[in-house]
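hey so u asked for the seq, here:
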Amino acid sequence: MSKFSFSNLPRIHFLSSESIRVIHEASISLLEKIGVLVQSKDVLKLLRDAGCEVNARGRVKIPEHLVNECIKSAPSSVRIYSRDGKHDLNVEGDNVYFNPGSAAISILDFETESIRPPTVRDLLNLVIVTDYLNNIHAQSTALVPSDVPEEVKDRVRLYIALKYSTKPVITGAFTIDGLHDMKKMLDIVAGYDSSRKPMAVFDVCPSPPLKWSELTVTNLVDCARYRIPAELVSMPQIGATGPATLAGCLIQHTAENLSGIVIHQLTSRGAPIIYGGSPALLDMRSGMSCMATPEVMLLISGYVEIGKYYGLPTHGYLGLSDTKTVDYQAGLESSMGILIGALKGVNIVSGAGMMDFESCQSLEKLVLDNEICGYALRIVKGINVTEETLAINVFNEAIEKGGFISLKHTMKWFKSEQYFPAKLIDRDSRRKWMDKGSKNAWRRAKEEVERILKEHKPQSLSNDIERELNEFTKSVMKRYGAKLIF
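ran it, structure tokens below
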């Protein structure tokens, strides 16, 4: 190793420039020679008219020049607006924003400590907690409530998030009609056509390998038409619905996302789109679909680097855990994922609060993950090196006074240099910790959840907007024989 050489410095890139080039070219080859299956006559016509080869079974081969054109027309920056104007997200560059993992079909009950299907009340609690947490920057429709009809679950989830929080929302539609209703709900809360200042991002998920269902591709097209930000969430499962090799999965992921970009941009050039994913690993011992393994984190890191190579905003599922309770494994897997996401500059990091193979949400884990996010954001903030922060001029004074603690320099800088976590993070002496009841992280998190739900009051909608939102949502519920609960 050479001395005094900047080339010795470590790197956190997992793909070389040459590897990215090879993966891109292989993905283009996959699209040109094998193509993607598209289950929509309208989208097939769109692609055929653009020069794609379409066979009788609906498989589409996409030429390289069209892929490149659509990458170039997709914006490099997406702005997501908040209801109060204080929580807007600039989804670009290396900006990092965290939101809860979404669409959980169970919840760890913070009162009984048991797993059960979530209700609308659980979703409301989660929205209130997320609204409070300072390192969770956006809401997500993180639970699928079991106490409303299947046909309206997507609308109810968005209704709760819009009504009880000012933060932007990461969401998704479960039906074709659902997206249109949800766009109307966003318009009501915005007070104008929400396409001008979108407050939500809609996830759209191709079906691995290399397939677009009628539902998801229609949602993708409708997002483009409305110019609502769409978030591509390719989901190859390593060794099952994707190759057993990470490089092979990267090719599949890239091809699926690029096909989505082509469909999206052909529908509406310049419409906002985010390059994301939620891969998994088939554990060959247990047969389970694992979401928090080193291989999944590597795969996400790889496709984020590719997305940044394309100059697109990025997304990744990181910060979740495969464990069944809030334990050491939850901290291990979540902290690794969140830190990697922050260091890689993943623009939208979804996963906080999520566990049990992306099927369960926990409010206790969510408030603990909020602190992990804070730690990660402090780390990526880095070390501020200036003439004043080098502190050369204060050493003599410190030596005379026997330390630095009483110096004006210390008083000036400690608040901006140090990250101060919430009180649920234990930094007390052992005696003080014992005096407070010797509580572990789980117990402290449980008490923090209870405190937030008791004390935090989200900013309300105006009376007129709340009335209009309620009336519209009631009309949607009535369509399916259901009633509005909150």
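The chain has a mean pLDDT of 97. The longest strand covers residues 200-204.
lmk if thats what u needed
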